[in-house]
Here is the input.
Amino acid sequence: MNEVCLGMILNRKSTNVNTEVSNQSPAISFINKPTKITGDINCNEDLRIAGTIEGEVHSKMKFILNDSGIINGKVHSQEAEIAGTVNGDVRVKDKLTLKSTAVIEGKIYTKKISIEDGAQIKGSLHVGPNVSIEDTSSTPTSKTTSSSSSDSSDKEKSKDEKSGSGKIFSKN
Here is the structure.
């Protein structure tokens, strides 16, 4: 398997050799089956993935995940057709199509959806004209607990004891 590690965001732009032809057919970025990319992908045109992505995928146009494709991260797109596996949230501004081989483990947010028999969703589904597609999870939130401070310190001690970590005390 080819492995490509990206510490940066991948942006591809098409080159216009023949303006007349390129205006008629949109550019498509393609990631082949044996390719594995670690990092986030941002694409301004259609994006087709048959390989594995460890990171977020953002496409301003149509996103297509082939049946061999695996995404371990969030997907954001204008339109999407998924036949592979996504382990993360899927946010599609217009229409999401799930093929019979699709497996989604995460929340789905879209205005319209089409699901073929056999597609699997392990998570929640939010569909409709008023569904918020924007991802607000990147905003830091404060951590709150419902237990008292002595209870939470006891829980921390027992968690540390179970994991084998913690402080060692010696008597002098």
Observations:
- Helices lie at 19-24, 149-163.
- Confidence is low (pLDDT under 50) at residues 1-22, 139-172.
